[in-house]
Amino acid sequence: MKSILTLLSLLALVSARAAERPNIIVIMADDLGYGDVSCYGGKVPTPAIDRLAREGVRFTSGYCSASTCTPTRFSLLTGTYAFRQKGTGIAPPNGPAIIKPGTETLPAILKRAGYATAVIGKWHLGLGDPAPDWNGELKPGPLDIGFDHAFLLPTTNDRVPQTFVEDRRVKNFDSADPLWVGNQQPSPDHPTGITHRSTLKMDWSHGHNQTIHNGISRIGFYTGGTKARFRDEDLADTWVKQSNHWMEANKDRPFFLYFASQDIHVPRVAHERFQGKTTLGPRGDCIVQLDWCVGELMKTLDRLSLAEKTLVIFCSDNGPVLDDGYKDAAVEKLGDHQPAGPYRGGKYSVWEGGTRTPFITRWKGTIAPAVSDEVVCTVDFATSFAALTGQTVADTACRDSLNVLDALLGKPGAKGRDHVLQQDNGSGNFGLRAGDWKLVRLEKRGQSQARVSKAERPLPAAKHTLYKLSADPGERTDVSAAHPEIVQRLTAQLDKLITDGRSRPQP
Predict the structure, then answer these.
(1) 169: helix, coil or strand?
(2) pLDDT tens digit sequence for 40-60
């Protein structure tokens, strides 16, 4: 009898501890700028995202770690800045798995804590080794670094192939119609955006002119896999359907869902019911679609009575871009909408607009609604969520992830980061914000073909420039000549952050 009572007590303790661990949903938008949603001053109504902001903490200094997708996603999952590992630039269609098995990751940490873990949406971190086997097992992949389930857009939607990957295999694969993905045109008569440009339903402006799928030409070549292919218009509905099904199946245990939307990345093709809903063209329509996705996920939490048991984080993988390879009128129809808000630059840059994005946390009944100026970053999720769930992170892992849990939860007096490092796609350009000061280091000055704003300013001639963000949020006036001692201090700090190989303090 005593042993039974002891067992029951232990079970009750385990159950009580489980009840203290919230579900965690990270919703990562793609190419969404600080000023793209209405609660941050945007012109497109985003009621679902605005609701999160009203019910949680809306950060005014929330950052991703890089101004392009692959490095930010790498850092989010590993807690380490992407520039520290080779091969973390924008992953190509046939790129191998960038995060290797055995790496400490955010999902692996939460899995140790008893969480069910899933990634649904855009992956773009490579699959397989040394390359993806599109007709067999795609291993290693998400299931080898801590995820229990994966339902993926394997690269980006402007890169081939346009197929879903479920766990380790291409969904709806037909062995009689094998999938081939390559870097060279498979035959002289293979249709491309150059040879069959007149047939396209969305024309390209630069690049993006190889294999045609769904009337849109992409980066890279592929053939076969006909039954496995999807329509761009159906992506958002698929992510929501898959996420709702998975949450329902795991509602009785703590879960971690990484919902990685493709919106508003090019090619911007919203479902027909969202097309024409804004005056901004396809880019604006995809913002509306993204907001719908957020609303549907929140409806599911409400229906399952999980809203007060779930920490929801909304963020973006980098800042905005207008013309990113397709003629979708993003520039022409912009009007007075400011995708990056008051900030300079956007995707591909180390200016504030490249990495300062919408960033909201909500945990109904636990987080008090507020607006916070504390600096937080997506690279901090690994260590912060480890603290939330009582897990220990090895000293050699998650080398740049700081525990800012109290700031994420909006606790009074809680402090975020005292600095944040900003990188682009690995060119050697960096930004360092420390308090009110921002140092920009430009090693390479080639402007991307992509347009990130309506009126772009030329790059400064000096390698190092300095800005005081409280007086100059748009980084218009270099004040380095007036403050040489601050330039010297921040340059030394940036150099040390790079050469030390880590920024998370050692115990």
Answers:
(1) strand
(2) 999 999 999 999 999 999 999
The residue to which tokens 């394997």 are assigned: 154
Closest CA to 268 of 499, 44, 490, 506: 44
- Is the bond into 267 cis (omega within 30 degrees of 0)? yes
- DSSP character for 22? P
Give the residue from 266, 299, 270, 301 showing the smallest Cα distance to 286. 270
Q: In the chain, what are the domains?
A: 20-174+229-408 (3.40.720.10), 419-499 (3.30.1120.10)
Output Rg (C-alpha) for the chain, integer angstroms.
22
The alpha carbon of 250 is separated from its chain's Cα centroid by a whole number of angstroms, namely 24
Is the C-alpha dihedral spanning 490, 496, 497, 498 positive or negative? positive
Comparing 106-115, 320-329, 457-466, the range with the smallest average pLDDT is 457-466
| Residue 80, CA distances (Å) to 49, 337, 504 in order | 28, 34, 9
pLDDT tens digits along 349-361: 999 999 999 999 9
> In this predicted model, what pLDDT tens digit does every residue of 307-332 receive, in sequence order?
999 999 999 999 999 999 999 999 99
Structure tokens at 362: 């909500």
Distance between CA 370 and CA 388 in Å, rounded? 20
Copy the structure tokens of residue 446.
Answer: 């080639």
Q: Give how far Cα 210 sits from Cα of 218, 219, 298, 448, Å.
A: 5, 6, 38, 20
Specify the pLDDT at position 53. 98
- Show the DSSP H helices in 224-374 as ranges: 235-249, 282-303, 352-355
